[in-house]
Amino acid sequence: MLAGIRTFISNYTNGMYFPHIQIIDIIEILIITVIVYEIMLWIKNTKAWMLLRGILMLGAFILVAWIFQMNTILYLAKASINVLAVAAVVVFQPELRRALEKLGEKNLFSNINPFDKNRENERFSDETMEGIVRACYEMGSVCTGALIVVEQAIQLTEYEMTGIELDCKVSSQVLINIFEHNTPLHDGAVIIRGNRITSATCYLPLSDNMTISKDLGTRHRAALGMSEVCDALVIVVSEETGLVSVASGGRLSRGINAEKLRKELSQIQYRNSDPKKKKFTIRKGWHR
Fold this sequence. Notes:
The protein is α+β, with helices and mostly antiparallel strands. The chain has helices at residues 2-13, 23-43, 47-67, 71-91, 93-105, 126-141, 157-160, 172-178, 218-229, 258-267, 275-287, and strands at residues 146-150, 164-169, 189-193, 196-202, 233-237, 244-248, 251-253.
């Protein structure tokens, strides 16, 4: 019986090539898959997508020229390929920079970095979190527009320089006063680092996402654009509707309630672990 099966397989697989796959080949395929996937995520909904479409159209045109042996066009394409590559890098320098920033956000070695072990694990206090939440919904109740950036791992020094330095403690009263209508600091964004407001009236990059609703204004586009280039949590209070929205990781959640905003802030309150677990540990120590 076994011999018959072997004969049947050998008859139908004779002459076929079966590559010898090793573990390293599988790892290599997975790495290439991840790289291609990350590149596709990067070019999606950005100007880089237009670049890719242009490259594909140019490639199709060159393919047609090669099929019909249009030697002049083939010569020009071969001579200009290096110039086009350099021009693409220059024109799309902002998109390439954002891609490298996104790659830098994926800190794979943060848990084993000895220099971070002595740093306090808490980014900001519960008092700061409650002050932000209270200010947002008090401003929303009277339709006062606001744009608040809560910094995480990536420092936002270059965006702070576009505004006015403050360096004051976070409180709902200060935030409400900053974004009050017709005040010198109400226009632009506020950047929060830890428990301090570092600067106000900051300019943020607008998003290149082509699928954004046309109903969204400049504040929401700036919040989404900021979340695309860094790991910050950006909070928006709409001046038209009073609704509170949150942008993080290139995604915008519109019209959230206070509990949802408090949950979003608590998820970034601690650097290396689950905030619920940290609070449980602290309370357990208090009970002792």
